[in-house]
Amino acid sequence: MTLLEIFPSLRDGGLAPRLDPAIWPADTHYDGEGRITVGGVALADIADQYGTPTYVLDEGEVRARCRAYRTRFPDAEIIYAGKALLTRAVAEWITDEGLSLDVCSAGELTVALSSWTDPARIVLHGNGKPFAELETAINCGVGRIVVDSLTEITLLSALANRPQRVLLRVTPDIDVHGHPALRTGVTDQKFGFPIGGQSVFEAVERILGQPNLEFAGLHCHIGSQIYDTFPYGEAVRRMVAEMARIRDGFGVTLTDLDLGGGHAVAYRGGDAEMNLAELSDIIEDSLDAACARHGFPRPRIALEPGRAIVARAGVTLYRVLSVKHVENGHTYVTVDGGMSDNPRVALYGAHYDAVVVNRHPTGPEMTATIAGRYCEAGDILARDVRLPADLRPGEVLAMPCTGAYHHSLASSYNGVGRPPIIAVRDGSARELVRRETIDDLMCRDIGH
Ligand SMILES: Cc1ncc(COP(=O)(O)O)c(C=O)c1O
Questions:
Q1: Per-residue pLDDT tens for 42-65?
Q2: What percent of the chain is modeled with pLDDT above 90?
Q3: What's the pLDDT at 182?
Q4: Could you tell me if 372 and 230 lie in one domain?
Q5: Are strands 54-58 and 314-325 parallel, antiparallel or unpaired?
Q6: In terms of domains, do 128 and 243 share one?
Q7: Digit-coded pLDDT (tens) for 297-311
Q8: Any binding-site annotation on 306?
Q9: Which residues of the sequence carry a binding annotation for pyridoxal 5'-phosphate (predicted)?
Q10: What is the C-alpha to C-alpha distance for residues 211 and 46, in angstroms, rounded to an integer?
């Protein structure tokens, strides 16, 4: 007899608080043995088959998020920000779902093109694009390049041998809440040209002076983890005013306005997240008002969500290595991963939750700190996590909402290879990216 047969209430309502749908993929359940399944696959089985730590990615969840954007923003172009997570399969899924793709290096471009993403739907970003990467992008027919410096305009004009569409990145001087590294809308920082300034005009003049550059519009990205819609309304107002200023100064009417990404997701139950319906409303209303005010034709809007597409689709599996109760201190649960597969805690002070996946615990709980295995005192993955008091080494923990900026930010610190990515869908699992082995690491070390 299984646990769920004994306690049928566990099947739905009884378990709901532990598996918050805001932070887990929609297709997450407990199976008949009380184990957590995602995409119809028991996470404990994935840990057994592929080892740990392992990133699990729910294909259905990624696709559903793409569809949610397309439904909420039917007239906008949705450009997935590949920096959040890019593999050939992910590029295929988002292309299938009708999204465009933002890349910021020749490496990301190669992954995208190897998955048959149409180059015309690719947007190239970056505040420092090396010459060779610009050359590669132009040669393979990238649809748009977002200009981030005057030097780049010179390089592009030398490289473009046919009309190349460009956008100009502008900082709209909007300071959203959050970690300083996440506030990319403010003026004094490395990205873009300050709105309303002389440097925007200088850049516009230079772009217009290059016959092979086709000036399509403006771009801004105001920050990350933004759950308040107001800054996006403000960005629309300011950017349309800037487009009108450019029209008045140069007689060109730009057609495209790319509002970047930055839409917040919940990492732990109760965290605020972006409401797409409200975001859509505020963008529409602000656009109507700003265009009417400046007598400006409605530009084509683009959005660049990254995290909001993939974060909740990802779950990281770790095996418990030890449980240590420090006298008069905390309980440390050390797992076989840490800051190299999830640097977000150390980088941004991000907060996560975790649960045991190989059984459904019903007994007493403890409050624990989940520590990584790496040789840094700061290698802590999560604090104040409620876990079963009888948690043992060898059990498997899952950390939800780890699909964005985990694989893409991972390192091989301490000589530990990076985890694989295992996709789940309709009850089966497949490897998208294999585990990095010690042999892989040794391959790069040429020796004497
Ligand atoms: C230009 C640009 N667009 C989009 C994004 C995606 O941001 P997010 O993943 O927060 O949606 C970023 C993230 O840094 C970015 O720099």
A1: 999 999 999 999 999 999 999 999
A2: 90
A3: 55
A4: no
A5: antiparallel
A6: yes
A7: 999 999 999 999 999
A8: yes
A9: 262, 304-307, 405
A10: 55
Q: In the predicted model, is pLDDT for residue 1 greater than 70?
A: no
**Mutational test site, ligand 1, from 224, 232, 257, 263, max ligand atoms within 8 Å of CB:** 224
Number of domains, the chain = 2
Residue 263 CA: nearest ligand 1 atom is: 11
Q: Among the residues of 299-375, which ranges form H helices?
A: 307-310, 344-348
Tokens 């919940």 map to which residue? 266
Q: How far apart are CA 354 and CA 48, in angstroms?
A: 18
Query: How far is the C-alpha of 113 from the C-alpha of 108, rounded, in Å?
Result: 9
Are residue 14 and residue 149 in the same domain, yes or no? no
Range of the domain at 153: 59-311
User: Which DSSP state fits 237?
Assistant: H
- CATH number where 226 lies: 3.20.20.10
Confidence at residue 12, expressed as pLDDT on a 0 to 100 scale: 45
CATH code, domain carrying 337? 2.40.37.10
Question: Which of 311, 340, 365 is the last residue before a domain boundary?
Answer: 311
* pLDDT over 90 at 219, yes or no: yes
By the 8 A CB rule, do 359 and 327 touch? no
Q: Does residue 108 sit in the same domain as residue 209?
A: yes
Q: Give which of 267, 408, 264 is closest to 349, Cα–Cα.
A: 267
Same domain, 270 and 317: no
Same domain, residue pair 136 and 230: yes
Residue 116 near residue 109, CB atoms below 8 Å: no
Note whether 307 and 263 are within 8 A (CB): yes
Q: Does 79 share its domain with 222?
A: yes
Best mutation site among 189, 221, 405, 407 for ligand 1 pocket (most ligand atoms within 8 Å of CB): 221
Q: Once rounded to an integer, what is the mean pLDDT over residues 24-39? A: 96
